[in-house]
């Protein structure tokens, strides 16, 4: 059978994995639980005025969620604010503002995996498939006794969720818990998962076909659904979690770096922290990241007056330049020796981890207070 046709039939044989998501079809693996801080009283915020086009978009979205069974009418004393915002000239629904609820919610400490730990599992892989779960959070039901807490107010009525909405503080941790339970037999063997993103990886075509079958079969058994249009299969190189991963190693995703290149010079401490948070996601690709960023980092310290100096501007521009020319880092192999090259100065500490013929695995650095 032609290889491309064989791949098509593989997906077609699991077409129910790509079906329409409704409350009836959601997984019953675990329920989402909301635990409030003892003594908490209900919080309700009235809806604000909206423009006609915003109201029309809101009405459509409420109807869609109601038809799927994701929301029901509510008489709850709780009431969060639902908003609609504009992007590129068109209106679209964003999310409910659950910040007040999040402040009084007991935090779920289930850990999210480290990105570098996930990528370490990909060494030697030649074939990749990426599976994007459909409306991921909506696939997890809320415990019936907790649904009233998710209530929100709109011009068209008071509603509450039956499935986990976006914006709740414990949503990422709870969904990560779900996916680990479901995929545990395959984790670190041929599947890595980060919340609702699934990556299947294999060393051979034959292995990859079998790994895909097992992964899709598991999703079907646990009633988890993927969005076919956002899935990618049988790739030799894949974009995943802001990186480009292939047999040669791991690189930064140019599309993600563009946001850093377009970032204007910070005008406040908050903007500096936001920029360094985004750029710092790729610090393993940049030699002496902390040293270079130190003029900006100093401005975030307590009792330091904000002044965007020429030194800050130079560091800002240098980080942008280095990220656009960042090297491809190899995925280290167990059982082979490592080499660490270190460097120290009054400004900071730096090192690079290498393996086999001086191939770079990662950079690391730390700023020194002077």
TrEMBL record:
One of its GO terms (molecular function) is endonuclease activity. SUPFAM superfamilies: DNA/RNA polymerases. The keyword Ribosomal protein does not apply. PROSITE patterns: RT_POL. GO terms for biological process: proteolysis. It comes from the Eukaryota. The keyword Membrane does not apply. Keywords: Endonuclease, Hydrolase, Nuclease, Nucleotidyltransferase, Protease, RNA-directed DNA polymerase, Transferase. InterPro entries: DNA/RNA_pol_sf, Rev_trsase/Diguanyl_cyclase, RNA-dir_DNA_polymerase, RT_dom, RT_RNaseH_2. This is Reverse transcriptase domain-containing protein. It holds the Pfam family RVT_1. It comes from Stephania cephalantha. Residues 65-245 form the Reverse transcriptase domain.
